[in-house]
Amino acid sequence: MPKIRCHYIDCAFIDDGYCTAALVEINPDNGCLTYNPTAEAEHEDDWEDTEMEEWEELEEESDEDDEDWGDEEEEEF
Questions:
Q1: Would you call 24 exposed, middle or buried from its count of C-beta atoms within 10 A (0-12, 13-18, 19+)?
Q2: Tell me, what DSSP letter sits at residue 47?
Q3: Rounded to a whole number, what is the distance in angstroms from the first to the last CA of the chain?
Q4: Is the pTM of this model over 0.85?
Q5: What is the pLDDT of residues 34-71, one digit of tens each?
Q6: Distance of CA 68 to CAs 9, 41, 53, Å?
Q7: Containing H/E element for 64?
Q8: What is the DSSP letter of 16?
Q9: Where are the domains of the chain?
């Protein structure tokens, strides 16, 4: 039987990165239809406002770094 390597980390069928489901259904548009999130993962999706603010700050810093990088490239030529 072939092993299916899966990149879902919160699926109930994952064991050491491989799918253990007896039957796997894949849809080209929707991905794995066998995917079943674990009960623990549903609670981890509850983000607090402070976590979102941290992500927004990181995005802003990343955008500033990208702008600086473009300026340096233009100066080299």
A1: middle
A2: -
A3: 56
A4: no
A5: 999 987 655 455 555 556 677 777 777 766 655 555 55
A6: 35, 38, 23
A7: helix 49-76
A8: T
A9: 1-46, 47-77
